[in-house]
Amino acid sequence: MNARLRFSTFPRDLFAGTVVFLVALPLCLGIANASGVEPFAGLVSGIVGGLVVAALSGSRLSVSGPAAGLVVIVVDGIARLGSFPAFLLAVLLSGVIQFGFGMLKAGRLAAYVPSPVIKGMLAAIGLLLIVKQIPFALGITSGIDDATTAQMAGAIATPFGALSLAACVLAVLSLALLAAWETPALRRFALVRAVPAPLAVVLLGIAATLMLSMFAPTFALPAEHRVALPVLESFAALRSALALADFGPNLAQLANPDVWRVAMTLAIVASLETLLSLEAVEQIDPKRRAAPPDRELKAQGVGNLIAGAIGGLPITSVIVRSSANVHAGAQSRLSAVIHGVLLLVSVFALTSVINLIPLACLAAILIFTGIKLTKPSLFAATAKQGFAVFAPFIVTLVGVFATDLLIGIVLGMLCSVLLALHANLQRPITLAQHDDHYLLSFRKDVSFLGKVSLKRYLQQIPDGATLIVDAMRADFVDHDVRELIERFVADAPRRAIAVDVRQPVRAARRTGREWMWRREAAE
Asked: What mean pLDDT is reported for the chain?
């Protein structure tokens, strides 16, 4: 029955897998270029995400591969560790950590991360993507003197290097095409709905490269402004192209705390992005099929372990590819596997075509992604929700910019916790007076921080008064607070104060004893 079902859905999975491949190819290349590594590393991660993670995942529609959200960590990690091989060790370790998260059933913990922190992290990633991709979009080439620049057609000398006019025009046209592709006016056409926007930009770039080479070779983009994949003619060539990790020279890096810090950052951020992507895929899935989060973390861990071992970028479940998979009509994990197979085939069959893609077009795709992550409406909508939401959002964003992703997330979490504590400490205890009768009300749970206000209120009770302590609405009263009231009750007879303490039965059972102060005070 299962085999028959898989056969019946194969045509739709084949079509969806092909669509996802067309979306993933330019993204894998662009993310690798943005990370400052060889484009082949991005394709390796896409292949592992399709062939390994998809096979192990419990999600039927999620697609994994290199993610734009991890670019910042990759760039910072390589710079911090000094080399790409050392960074690959951190990727491998992050896979082990992610697998451990899955074994510990930590998937549910992502629900406790406040949404303002997640939004702040994504907005910071978007801004960093834009900033880091501008040089590629402008075709800036450093290390070229003014005399050489003058001989290059379409090159403009700037303090930052030689700027390519052709790359600038291509980047602007690519951004305009990406924006127009989503407008209702163009979505009316079946061709626009069938062709993914990133693929349209890549086709534009390839056509521009060919046209300039044929009719205006002096304006054509040089090789350093285009994708540079190695030509592979056999699986032996593929094996030699893979950066199979020789961790012998890098084993000493295991004692380097920076390696573990990068690995932990990758594991946490990749896990968060994966779990958020799973939740988003569940919302757009017509059948609302949920995926086991802990199984997904294990699958992602195995994928990152393998990617780190063979020279790939870190992997996560990616919402762009996953949503393309859903909208293309995918029915099972087979579509993600097919996309991985097609990426593998492209390494052999499409190298000459891929090497025609201008880096400016790939930069435009990532800049457009960054714009969507950090659009002004996000700031306005977050600000409207109040200070308690906007503050963690801004703290996370600034923290990521000033330090790194992990510290930025921690700072955002701390800000959220402090604001939550402040909200819970807002008048947990109130005091009302009528003649010589006083009502001390515990409006909610009272922690040890409530001692300050409680002590101030108790000092206001005069001799000979009657005090009612109403704790009926409090599920928890801290030991220090109870002790403070006990001392007041013990001293009440000396001051002729009548004390009546009211507490719910469930609270008395949980604390292990009843507050019998009313009887003691009466006696």
From this structure: 84
What six digits make up the tokens of 287? Answer: 């059948």
- Report pLDDT digits (tens) over 438-490: 999 887 778 777 888 889 899 999 999 999 998 888 878 888 888 898 899 99
Residue identified by tokens 């303490």 is 501
Q: Which helix (H) or strand (E) holds 162?
A: strand 161-164
Strand partners, 64: 317
Q: Kindly report, residue by residue over 158-177, the tens digit of the pLDDT.
A: 676 778 888 999 999 999 99
The answer for residues whose C-beta is within 8 angstroms of residue 123's C-beta and 6 or more apart is 373, 374, 378, 379, 393, 397
Burial zone of 244 (CB within 10 Å; 0-12 exposed, 13-18 middle, 19+ buried): exposed
Distance (Å) of CA 43 to CA 26, 67, 83, 314, 321: 9, 12, 20, 11, 14
Q: Please give the structure tokens belonging to residue 231.
A: 């030509």
Domains and CATH numbers, the chain: 2-387 (no CATH), 429-522 (3.30.750.24)
**Angle CA 425–431–435, to nearest 5:** 175
Positive or negative: CA dihedral 384, 385, 390, 396: negative
Report which of 93, 13, 5, 139 is spatially closest to residue 314, judged by C-alpha positions: 93
The token duo for 210 is: 């060919």
Q: Which residues contact 255 (CB under 8 A, 6 or more apart)?
A: none
206 Cβ contact partners less than 8 Å away, ≥ 6 residues apart? 353, 356, 357
* Pairing mode, strands 64-65 and 316-317: antiparallel
CA distances from 182 to 94, 175, 256, 513 (A): 36, 12, 46, 65
Other C-beta atoms lying within 10 Å of the C-beta of residue 398: 15
Give the separation between CA 373 and CA 368, rounded to whole angstroms: 9
Q: What CA–CA distances, in Å, run from 266 to 127, 315, 409?
A: 19, 9, 12
The Cβ of residue 402 has, within 10 Å, a number of other Cβ atoms equal to 11
Q: Are 368 and 137 in contact (CB under 8 A)?
A: no
3-state DSSP assignment of residue 333: coil
Tokens 């209702």 — which residue?
184
State if pTM tops 0.85: no
| Distance set, CA 424 to CA 386, 443, 448, 474 (Å) | 16, 10, 12, 12
Which residue(s) pair with 467 in the sheet? 438, 499
Q: Dump pLDDT digits (tens) for 114-166.
A: 889 888 888 888 898 898 889 889 888 655 544 444 445 567 766 767 788 88
Distance CA 182, CA 18 (A): 21
Q: To which residue do tokens 């998979």 refer?
A: 325
Backbone angles phi, psi at 490, to 5 degrees: -65, -30
Token readout for 473 is 């609405």
